[in-house]
């Protein structure tokens, strides 16, 4: 099997779908197993499920709103932030509450506040009796990916923290999420503990490939200075070089979540208030921007009002205010340009690109992992002689699908199970799809590289890795790894055509 273009895995997807259908036939007399298997078969045609996790105040809801481009997820410390909430695309807005215990879901009334933010009222239902909320909203951002907002890990409320842990790392079944975006303000021991608990060791082990870490309040790392994101990106790069962390997540990205959210949802009145600010005498404005306390003090200036300044601080933060003032002083003259520039500087575009190359392009592969885990769970829970061929088919798929060989080797390289010179490890990870699955990304060249040059580069790369695979100087582990990389190179050439 060759590695398909853009990370799509049609052959693997067909094989796993057939496996699920055979399992459904085998377990047609078991209501619990049947429902579980049918659910995973239907899940193949759904968007990718991306859970957003992190400690309390990591900025999960704010980043979710930035990714969607709307104020959907409540960001205040209300009862809904204590629940697992799904956000999915649909033809019309709706809000459904799913009770614990499998009771039928019931609709809730959709409300929005004066600023347009979604308000969720549980209508008296205790949080302890709610399994999840599902928000359906027409959104192009949700068509390929369903976002799942989870309560804060490490909350003072044991019940709140347990909801996230149970959803993301259930004791007796695969997680409902295909991939995880883990937010942190900085790398803390508790963050490492959670990532280790989520580190998949199941039947279709993929290790770090389904987790991305985000420094989600990157502007705070530099205490709101204009160069704060540069400092945050340097820290993210250092984290990416951490051997232990590399084995637990695919990469680390720095994002100023509040700035990204505000840039994508900025209103005309907010832009005009910023323009009014820039109209103040330079010395007066610079003094206001020294600290949050100075910015919101009621006695100065008279306009914009203290109330307006407090709103701007809440929406932009000190970093966003200083950056906006700088851009307006440099000649930005319209809200659209300012909003675009804020989003660009926030790091959101980089995160969205990483999500596209690491998760969206691997959608079928990640779903195949989830499905194989579901079949494995049924086989362990309800073993029966008639299911023996299913177990053999699971093993055959895992052994024969090159996509899983790539994932296993990526894991071994990151966990340093396979040891090799750093430059070889870096190249191998890239060729295995660690930085994206298109031929250009795997080869480490520009996306617009001429096909003939791509093919020449692929042939040269294939030759070098064949030599390593066949060299008597390569140890057994490195030779075996090189053979997997060779097969990936052959897949690149197959995608490029003859």
Note down, in words, how this protein is organized.
By secondary structure, the protein is α/β, with parallel strands linked by helices. It folds into three domains: 5-259 and 349-360, Rossmann fold; 271-334, no CATH class; 418-498. 52% of the residues lie in helices and 10% in strands. Helix 3 (60-68) runs parallel beside helix 8, helix 8 (257-265) runs antiparallel to helix 13 (335-346) and helix 20 (451-470) runs antiparallel to helix 21. The chain is globular, with a radius of gyration of 25 Å. The model is unreliable at 1-8 and 203-207 (pLDDT under 50).
Outline the secondary-structure elements.
Layout: H1 10-26, H2 31-43, E1 48-54, H3 60-68, E2 85-88, E3 94-99, E4 106-107, E5 111-112, E6 118-119, E7 130-136, E8 145-149, H4 158-168, E9 179-184, H5 189-198, E10 211-215, H6 228-240, H7 243-246, E11 252-254, H8 257-265, H9 268-278, H10 282-288, H11 292-296, H12 306-329, H13 335-346, H14 348-358, H15 363-381, H16 388-400, H17 402-414, H18 422-431, H19 439-443, H20 451-470, H21 476-496
Parallel strand pairs: 1-8, 1-9, 2-7, 9-10, 10-11
Antiparallel strand pairs: 2-8, 3-4, 3-7, 5-6
């Amino acid at each position: 099997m060759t590695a398909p273009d853009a990370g799509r895995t049609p052959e693997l997807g067909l094989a796993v779908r057939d496996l699920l259908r055979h399992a459904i036939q085998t377990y047609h007399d078991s209501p619990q197993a049947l429902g579980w298997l049918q659910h995973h078969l239907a899940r193949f045609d759904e968007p990718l499920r991306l859970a957003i996790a992190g400690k309390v105040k990591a900025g999960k809801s704010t980043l979710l709103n930035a990714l969607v481009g709307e104020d959907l997820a409540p960001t205040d410390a209300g009862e809904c932030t204590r629940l697992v909430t799904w956000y999915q695309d649909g033809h019309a807005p709706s809000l459904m509450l799913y009770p614990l215990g499998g009771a039928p879901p019931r609709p809730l009334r959709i409300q929005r506040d004066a600023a347009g933010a979604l308000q969720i009222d549980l209508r008296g239902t205790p949080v302890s009796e709610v399994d999840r909320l599902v928000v359906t909203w027409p959104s192009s951002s949700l068509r390929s990916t369903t976002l799942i907002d989870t309560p804060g890990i490490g909350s003072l409320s044991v019940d709140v923290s347990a909801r996230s842990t149970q959803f993301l790392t259930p004791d007796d079944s695969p997680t409902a999420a295909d991939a995880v975006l883990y937010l942190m303000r900085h790398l803390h021991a508790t963050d490492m503990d959670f990532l280790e608990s989520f580190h998949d060791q199941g039947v279709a082990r993929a290790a770090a490939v389904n987790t991305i870490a985000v420094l989600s309040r990157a502007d705070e790392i530099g205490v709101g200075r204009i160069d704060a994101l540069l400092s945050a990106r340097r820290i993210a790069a250092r984290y990416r070089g951490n051997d232990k962390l590399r084995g637990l997540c695919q990469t680390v990205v720095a994002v100023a979540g509040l700035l990204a959210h505000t840039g994508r949802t900025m209103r005309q009145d907010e832009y005009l208030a910023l323009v009014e600010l820039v109209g103040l005498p330079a010395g007066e404005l610079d003094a206001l921007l020294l600290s949050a306390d100075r910015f919101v003090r009621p006695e100065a200036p008279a306009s914009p009002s203290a109330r307006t300044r407090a709103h701007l601080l809440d929406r932009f933060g000190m970093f966003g205010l200083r950056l906006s003032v700088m851009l307006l002083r440099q000649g930005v003259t319209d809200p659209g340009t300012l909003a675009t520039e804020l989003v660009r500087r926030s790091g959101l575009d980089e995160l969205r690109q990483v999500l596209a190359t690491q998760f969206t392009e691997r959608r079928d592969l990640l779903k195949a992992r989830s499905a194989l885990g579901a079949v494995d769970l049924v086989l362990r829970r309800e073993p029966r002689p008639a299911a023996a061929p299913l177990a053999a088919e699971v093993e055959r798929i895992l052994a024969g699908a090159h996509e899983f060989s790539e994932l296993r080797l990526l894991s071994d390289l990151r966990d340093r199970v396979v040891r090799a010179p750093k430059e070889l490890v870096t190249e191998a990870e890239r060729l295995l799809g660690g930085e994206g699955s298109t031929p250009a990304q795997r080869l480490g060249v520009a996306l617009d590289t001429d096909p003939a040059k791509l093919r020449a580069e692929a042939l040269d790369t294939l030759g070098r890795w064949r030599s390593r695979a066949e060299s008597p100087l390569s140890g057994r582990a490195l030779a075996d790894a090189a053979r997997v990389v060779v097969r990936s190179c052959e897949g690149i050439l197959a995608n490029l055509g003859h």
